[in-house]
Amino acid sequence: MPHPQLFSGESVVSWSDLNIIISVPWYLGLMFRTRKEDSVLMEATSGGPTSFRLQSVWLSLLQILNNYLQFEVSHGPSDVESVMLSGLRVTDGEWHHLLIELKNVKEDSEMKHLVTMTLDYGMDQNKADIGGMLPGLTVRSVVVGGASEDKVSVRRGFRGCMQGVRMGGTPTNVATLNMNNALKVRVKDGCDVDDPCTSSPCPPNSRCHDAWEDYSCVCDKGYLGINCVDACHLNPCENMGACVRSPGSPQGYVCECGPSHYGPYCENKLDLPCPRGWWGNPVCGPCHCAVSKGFDPDCNKTNGQCQCKENYYKLLAQDTCLPCDCFPHGSHSRTCDMATGQCACKPGVIGRQCNRCDNPFAEVTTLGCEVIYNGCPKAFEAGIWWPQTKFGQPAAVPCPKGSVGNAVRHCSGEKGWLPPELFNCTTISFVDLRAMNEKLSRNETQVDGARALQLVRALRSATQHTGTLFGNDVRTAYQLLGHVLQHESWQQGFDLAATQDADFHEDVIHSGSALLAPATRAAWEQIQRSEGGTAQLLRRLEGYFSNVARNVRRTYLRPFVIVTANMILAVDIFDKFNFTGARVPRFDTIHEEFPRELESSVSFPADFFRPPEEKEGPLLRPAGRRTTPQTTRPGPGTEREAPISRRRRHPDDAGQFAVALVIIYRTLGQLLPERYDPDRRSLRLPHRPIINTPMVSTLVYSEGAPLPRPLERPVLVEFALLEVEERTKPVCVFWNHSLAVGGTGGWSARGCELLSRNRTHVACQCSHTASFAVLMDISRRENGEVLPLKIVTYAAVSLSLAALLVAFVLLSLVRMLRSNLHSIHKHLAVALFLSQLVFVIGINQTENPFLCTVVAILLHYIYMSTFAWTLVESLHVYRMLTEVRNIDTGPMRSYYVVGWGIPAIVTGDAVLHLFWSLIPCTLGPSWPPDLYMAQLAGSSQAPSAFTIPPAPSHCHPPGSLVFLSSPRPRYAPCLMGPIQEQLLPPGPVSLRPYTERLCLEGPWAGSLDSLLLPLRREMLSPPFHPTLAGPWHGVATGHVALTLPFLPAVFRTGGRPGPPGLREPRLLLAVASRHPDLELCGAHRSCYNHQHSHFCPICKGFLPKKAPLLWEKRDRVSGAEPDRPAMSAGP
């Protein structure tokens, strides 16, 4: 029944011989309107005696359930169940929508069949467990319009209109009840009834309103009551006021008050003599209310406070009154709430202006919300009224008020109205700019100096006076700004527009800030499908301001800072001869307010402009050979050592000054297209990458000699994080315009590395100038979820502790097991128990360095004791097999010394020499997959192992212990070093004391070359690249070195042994995975420049470019300290 059908009370529509099986879920729905208080809407019968009936009950003064819907299911005369909707009266002549749903609900492990009745899309709803008898039944007949046994006569017939009757497995299934197969008796199509107002039932001075089978009398203005009596006859005015009829007033009458009273009914006494627009007593003053902002010109007579006009409202955070704009069809009146602006909506109507329905397929009418079944309803969205539109078709209407063009919105059959497309709309203020942009694109005109000033001034005005930019506005503005910046990039000196108008740079930055607002993201995404978009705008800005930096000195521009909501531009000038470091911008000198996210800066070190110093003499020389002194050749840095008097005579020497220009973009990083360097060796992309910092563009121009590329001394960029929660794994990146990704470049990490990070900031250092940002991963934790790891760890350790405890108790209590061997097992169980107990207790003691150090010492001792008791067990079993006498009984003093005493001595020596020195804690959270090497020249006084300490407040897990021991023992085989290197996972155990002298001087030295040849080939073959790093790199990353003292056997140049004079070199080696950006060079080759490092001769090692070197020179022959370099543990 898709169309309305009119029932007269004796009408009926029936279907017979149906075969509809009720399944779960099951839906029954219809729409109706009626004024009859007792009638049957529908009756359906199954094959048996079961029936269910939908009815409304007769109105009674004693029953308040009348006029409400009831759903009844009967299984015989005595088995009747029902559910009623008692929250909404349905006999009001209005259209009502009813939906009955049968579904399964699981409660307390029991499946129930629940019937849910929903009236008017949720205005009233009730549920009941009465559906247990329905599933599986077959509906044989359905009667609509009353109860009828013979499908002709009708009992308790329905009088009114009905449509949309449907039942089946979906809410919209109408195929089961086809009107072509129905029997219609006295039913009419449509819903037209006689107008009751034709008989003029209303009294004089009133209008009759047809209410569908009913009527209501509406009195004219100025008349009140059931009989519409003249209001002035009732004398509503107070204080002797006179009632005068006034058809133009809201009430139809006004009260004319005396000279001492005022108000609508003359109820207020006039104490203040000030006229309208004035206030005060006894002296009157003007109100000063801004009528242009929606305020009433007449203020409060007592305090002078301004108030909004009638039908206006004012939000607390604003200083302007806004119109209510209540939609007449959906609201009761034009007034709204003075604080929120909410209009008084009719039932079913929502929205501040009462212009929407809660149902997406309903539209607002004078009677409320009415559902449209064949298309999308008339709706208000984005300042536009969209007309009714058929499903699958678009609607094109003029753009909102204040703009030109056409807006488009599509009507979907599944989702209804889709979001409107306003990209082609152009604001009125951008119409002339769009015409100019089209001329420039067609080369009909050109940009010159005067036109550049005019365009940027117009762009700033248009962007500032436009609340929301449409897509066409953004495209027009960015293309025009690009034309201007491209033209200015070729100008020199005083031909620059910035030298002719002091506000030129402010106009550019304010226009760019408006274009890069977060609200323009959707427009940029559409623009970048066919154009360069934000990447092209960034390139134009970089090109122009690079030209500005070159011309700052010659045009006598001074340093300045421009602050906007989304951008900051800072220009500074440095004296390279007296440069002590700088930070740009200097936020302590900025007085304007700016968002916290823009608080990012670039720091230049004190030696940034210092020329690279030339190295003198060979770094290594054979023993006995002297070094010939060399004369230092004057270089660019010689000028810095000139007397002060000379500098004063030449204050403007060429090459004395440098210009730094920094631009900070708050949102540009998120607006750029998501394109990344395809070379994963330079950029390891997170799982869900996102730019989480402002974008910082750095431009530096140095007079005289240009800065080297890459920079000798990197710039430090400090970023403020945009989001501090659920952002991990920072990667320092920059926008590389030369990448062949999408034609406009992409994000790359070449030349940048992470320096430090805290909760709110990230610091990066980069060996070039570009536009930098920080790429992060959207995840909760830095290294994944910790909870599963905690559960597994604590569960496994608890089981292990319980098993060890049971083993110890059994070995202690069972007499049959008492022997030296089982005593050794008891001590071994105690050592294992203590090691795991200390591990569980101390695993989280990383905040306090003292506790962390104590835990590390205990674990060091207990683990050594565990291995010692394992050794004791092996020796004891060996003695039991080789000695004739019974050694399984008797004293065990020697065993106690080996098992507990020797580990205590070794640990005590390590505590005295290492734990309380520069290495506060030897535990750490992770072992990064890099290979770090360094070379040290040894002496008898040198420590036995050179370990790069982690950060002082940083602790490593006990699973990655580093054993630090006393100098030069000689009692372990040399093969422990290479075995450890090749077999142990990351987090290695340093076996330095077991491998030093024996490997270099013992019988193992000759065979090491063949043993380590596969390792050397693997390390020297791509893509495996070991790296050498100084202690500063270890501090930054938390790596601990693995000591292997066989450098001549591992690294040979062309099969030759190492250089003379290095008889006992010690190699610090932490073995891990492969490093993509570093190379391994031979010990006698000259220095090789690389992106991140220099690999120099063997005396220098493999060092980061930016790391400082501390040289410690010692002569191997004479004992003096002239030439031998060695790396220090820290600056």
Automatic annotation (TrEMBL):
GO biological process assignments: cell surface receptor signaling pathway
Domain Laminin EGF-like: 324-371
Topology within the bilayer: Multi-pass membrane protein
Ranges where the GAIN-B domain occurs: 618-782
Stored PROSITE patterns: ASX_HYDROXYL (PS00010), EGF_1 (PS00022), EGF_3 (PS50026), EGF_LAM_1 (PS01248), EGF_LAM_2 (PS50027), G_PROTEIN_RECEP_F2_3 (PS50227), G_PROTEIN_RECEP_F2_4 (PS50261), GAIN_B (PS50221)
Low complexity biased stretches: 621-637
UniProt keyword annotation of Membrane present: yes
Keyword field: Cell membrane, Developmental protein, Disulfide bond, EGF-like domain, G-protein coupled receptor, Glycoprotein, Hydroxylation, Laminin EGF-like domain, Membrane, Receptor, Repeat, Transducer, Transmembrane, Transmembrane helix
Region entry Disordered, spans: 612-649
Compartmental location: Cell membrane
EGF-like domain segment(s): 193-229, 230-267
Residue ranges occupied by any G-protein coupled receptors family 2 profile domain in the UniProt entry: 356-429, 789-907
One Gene Ontology term, aspect cellular component: plasma membrane
Family from the record: Belongs to the G-protein coupled receptor 2 family. LN-TM7 subfamily.
Protein name, as recorded: cDNA FLJ51399, highly similar to Cadherin EGF LAG seven-pass G-type receptor 1
High-level lineage: Eukaryota, Metazoa, Chordata, Craniata, Vertebrata
